[in-house]
């Protein structure tokens, strides 16, 4: 039940910049994902909010109150750590009770709340076991339970399900999303898995090297990546990027084999540029079509409902994702046609996006 | 490796190990059997080795505990009871001192980064030959009237074994995942409360190891007790080596009995904490 | 977006880090106090007394030492004291003989204990026993073993078939050997323990990888295990060298430095000057000189170790 | 030239049977993935092929040679460990040269081969670096290169991609598969990720609880899972598996899903005949999320409520719940489904029936 804000927050450890000049506002009741590769500063953000680290500059505001220098206990946030941080010498039940006992909640109330949380997370039968005797998934639930048992201003979670196997992860993320909607609390969720972030977040923030690169809904981020970095990291299989140059409103690929008939960007000053098109926006045909690139089939990756066709054009391998099951032969000459309406144009220097498909053409 | 090679290798292995075991055990066995030998068997003639006592006797133990026995004509002015008591009291008290101070200090350094030079300063305590520093300590102790008192001896033992407890606990604390303590902080604990409600229960087993390890060290000292005790708080090793008399010369059997009593506790405790011995002996630098 | 209204809730408490530093200071205080107590006062005292002729028979307490202040006369005397240099030399000899012997014996035993075999745990426990015996007691054990009418001579007679009647502890050379044997007996297990930990710490996957690439036992040992054990070996050698330098208990119990000064190490020499000759100011000078010497050595050793550790930690990240 | 033949291979650890009576034949130059959840015996199987672990029973043959009792150093297999097991105290060069050096190859020859391998693995620039300075991606290539340089006929890889980040993993999948085509070796690849197995392998051996469940090409495994386990394990999101009963009514066959409704396959639908061949009427009906046909309420099919919609880039996963059943559907973002909508669910593609008790496929 709180809005969480960071204003101009920076933090360095010695010479290493952990995060720099971060401005984020997470409104009440939002499922907010922080996404980025390892060591991009996303965990640092949570630690700053929690008060486990002090920012070198900037302000931390929780529920309208300046909390920059308050100790963690005063901030009323709850946290699920990546390694879960269950107390190994306590049973699951004692772990759940801990936050309430420390806040001197009356015993009857503690019993009621623990029972309720245990029920919600289906761990009632596990309360007498110590964490060492629980499975990964069960430990997960206990850790989440410990953060739910109180009524904090917001929940913070640092890759809480990354240790689980793929199947369980898919289930847990849906369950978390359901819990957040039922509890109606702000949830800040850190992950390095783009699919996880996209599937659960109301809004997401993409970080790179301690800076925020883009904040937006998953759709915005996917369809209109602000920089080439965002385009690369969101979406799987990853986007295809082709280097070239924009000159007098025309794009020329550095590798002549990759000449793509992309629309002109009339308002763009000359620059080295990169165009990107996502694998699902590419068609692979045996016949020549307008704006097609000639290539050879490099590898085939059938995945059941869809397949990835890797084709080699010039020195590059381009990835296309086609529905159904592929009917190509290795080495076979083919023609690939990107959907020009969904191409993105980035400046090579800095990676800023200056246009997408027809938008670019229209100026 | 073929099967025959394998067999040869195993045979070699066992031969070498058993040889080593015999060499390692002879001195201990000799002392242990000597403790049960009557006076006549204490020394041996060239012609015959008496490995096992021919006429086993508890006379040696009787002698050191009661001061007299049928076998020797002399009586002992001081029995072993008091040194054993002294060793126990002093080793326990000094262990308590070293472990409490060391644990607190190690946590302060490991967690809050205060006292950056402390770990190395503490280690220095261990570098010096005790003999070289003991002169001023002796002067100081006599000036403070600490010589031959149990707390005087405990204090210096506690200081001398502080490096072990400090470094051991420091490496154990370094290994406690930070997030577990942070989780307690987020849930409303103060840092001191985290220390005794979360961290200490988590390192219970290592703490016990440290206690036993430090106890062994304190129990084993000779030189400090030699310098700082006179009569009342003489410890077992000092007492043992004073077991000579003008009339009969070396009291071999009595000494062996005393030595056996002194040797048993560290060996037993050492086997109990075997798993952590490497860590203890290398100040936590190596794990097993 | 709505701008949030910022209200400051009272004066900010101490932040977590500040609280931690405060608590940390309190927690390290006892350690600091003990260190000051044991370093500062005795340190000042040893320097002060070493610059005088004061002795316990002077009839005045040590703080009157200024009455016989002589500045550096004791140190000058030290430079020409043959017994001092002799004892340093003997200490050094013992160190460079026993430490390598213990090292290689320990390494050999450790290699035998790398893989699993029946009774391993029992053998292991028994092998560790010598180092857990109280050193003074160990000294006594060897004292009786090395008596002329003791079992060592008998065993040697039995093995060689001749009648061996060696004088051990009263013969200058033999006494020296006897002491080294006792030290090797007691501390080979320590080397064994540490080196075995090192051998077992060699990543198993890397050894398997080497096997799969066709390496034989010797190639794996030289190319994989030894390089990985470098730090462990340094630690073992440093710890044992320091302890060997301190050697007192065993030696004092066995020979009291004798016959004459034949087995007198630096610790025994100091002890004798203290209690037999009662030259406390001179002995303070010796003590201080030894401390300075070891501090210098230790400083170098610690610097090397710290450097190696740092590299190791980097390696751990990648491994 | 090397084929692998596992016959009756069994491995017990005390009471635990890790691998049970495994028969598997791998053809020369084939790329086979051993796929299964953790603890299914896949790694143990591979360790037995490499000789790291001795079988409790059965035999391992390379071509026609029985090498069950040959020590691992003499089998001449290449092995890439999950953690790569790089000799981090050596340089990249020394790592690559290791296998040649221990075999006593002349220095000039070593130099030449190492240079070639470094080029193939794109490590030429790093050739003199200490191995500990390499990134995870480079370590992985070094591990492959180090094994490949001794030209093993059989190459074994233990989850080599699991430490890589998602974007690079997609790239390495293609590269690894291509490498296998170039090196012309028999490759056995252990993974728990069905996507990796599907996209790279010529054949997949699916294992569970130490027992081989199915052995076939990726599409075979995807389109004709032999049992419920394989059906559930292959494909993401996993196949919908719904308990139902076969009911014969007026000559027509229909599947009864209780309160959720029923499905009636057409007469020419193969499902009708399969239903008639079923041994018992209690069966599990399986259909893939991408084959789910969603229609507005009112038509035929199962009546279900949309509980959650995950949007992941270009596609959506729609979670539906009906009385006693849950279904996931995958489609593009055009599907007009909002949380709370009642929809009609049917199968628009390949459907499967499994025996409710044995889990075996009904055909």
Describe the overall structure.
The complex is a heterotetramer of chains A (363), B (288), C (319) and D (363). By secondary structure, chain A is of the alpha+beta class. Chain A contains 9 helices and 20 strands. A 6-stranded mixed sheet of chain A has the order 6-7-8-3-9-10, with helices on both faces. Residues 359-363 of chain A have low confidence and may be disordered. Chain C has 319 residues and is mainly alpha-helical. Chain C has helices at 16-50, 73-79, 82-112, 120-132, 135-145, 151-160, 172-201, 204-212, 217-245, 249-254, 266-275, 280-318. In chain C, helix 5 packs across helix 7 (172-201). Chain C starts with 15 loop residues before the first helix and ends with a helix. The longest helix of chain D is centred in the middle third of the chain and has 18 residues, at 166-183. The two termini of chain D are 38 Å apart. The mean pLDDT of chain D is 89. Chains in contact: A-B, A-C, A-D, B-C, C-D. At the B-C interface, helix 1, helix 4, helix 5, helix 6 and helix 7 of B face helix 1, helix 3, helix 4, helix 5 and helix 6 of C.
In short:
The complex is a heterotetramer of chains A (363), B (288), C (319) and D (363). Chain A has 363 residues and is an alpha+beta fold.
Write the layout of secondary structure elements.
The complex is a heterotetramer of chains A (363), B (288), C (319) and D (363).
Chain A: E1 4-13, E2 16-26, E3 31-35, H1 42-50, E4 57-62, E5 65-66, E6 77-80, H2 92-102, H3 107-120, H4 136-148, E7 154-158, H5 166-183, E8 186-191, H6 194-200, E9 203-208, E10 211-216, H7 218-223, H8 228-233, E11 240-247, E12 250-253, E13 271-277, E14 282-285, E15 293-302, E16 306-313, E17 316-323, E18 333-338, E19 344-347, E20 353-356, H9 357-362
Parallel strand pairs in A: 3-8, 3-9, 6-7, 7-8
Antiparallel strand pairs in A: 1-2, 1-4, 4-5, 9-10, 11-12, 11-13, 13-19, 14-18, 15-16, 15-18, 16-17, 19-20
Helix pairs in contact in A: 2-3, 2-4
Chain B: H1 3-34, H2 39-42, H3 59-66, H4 81-112, H5 118-127, H6 130-143, H7 150-175, H8 178-186, H9 191-202, H10 204-220, H11 223-228, H12 236-241, E1 244-245, E2 249-250, H13 252-272, H14 277-281
Antiparallel strand pairs in B: 1-2
Helix pairs in contact in B: 1-13, 3-13, 4-7, 4-10, 5-7, 7-10, 8-9, 10-13
Chain C: H1 16-50, H2 73-79, H3 82-112, H4 120-132, H5 135-145, H6 151-160, H7 172-201, H8 204-212, H9 217-245, H10 249-254, H11 266-275, H12 280-318
